[in-house]
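User: Please predict the structure of the protein below. I'd like the answer in structure-token form so I can feed it into my own downstream comparison script.

Assistant: Understood. Taking the following sequence of 151 residues as input:
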Amino acid sequence: MFGIYSTYHGRISTGSDVVEDWQGRYANGHIRYPNQQETARFKAQYQLKIDDYIAQHSELDEKRKVDLRSLRPKIGMTKQEVALFLIGPFEKIDSQEGLAINAGKYWPELKNRVSEVWISKYGYEGLKEDFFFQGDTLIDIHADIPTTQPL
């Protein structure tokens, strides 16, 4: 059996999968993971949500449509697109002090580029993802990355 032993804050190129995030949140509220039917139903509903968004935005190129259908936020997406993948509340910070705290060791590189960070908890462990924006564009993603050790 393995469990989370510790985490480190690192850069990632894509955010967490919306289905996996939902499963973790479901487990918190129901003391069990959703079964295959519940998961399939959620995923189908979410894919419809994404397809509706794509249908409303005819200006999207094929690469962006594929990225959206992956059900994960990715660098280069707009705030509206990233918001599609965040389940539950998230915190928005636009102060330089708040940005610096959340950027941590990456602040020297980001300080002249970022205008806002969105902080979201994901999964049943309550790990954190930070989405850094320059204007309306997602330019960096940081996350608590778990390491495991046998229990």
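That's the full token string. The chain has a mean pLDDT of 89.
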